[in-house]
Write a structure and sequence with these properties.
With 93 residues, the protein is mainly alpha-helical. Helices cover 75% and strands 0% of the residues.
Length: 93
Amino acid sequence: MRRHTPEQIRSKLQEAETLVLGGENIDKVCRHIAVSKTTYYNWRREYDGLDNEQLKNCRELKRENIRLKRMMANLRLEKAVLERVAQGRFFTQ
């Protein structure tokens, strides 16, 4: 699976918008920018209308969210281990 940067996505969306305004249908536009219709609509929902600063903030927020989810998973694991220790069950049963 190929990943696109937010800047590449924004560029492809601008290109697609130009083609759509020129009268092309969505199927041809998606083939031209080499993405599926589903990807195109997901990108439009997420990235359309964002400027470079907003894209940068979005990328930073996504990274922070991933970091926080990992922290949460680690804390849950630690809690489970501590609960087992508190119950006197040191080995798996």
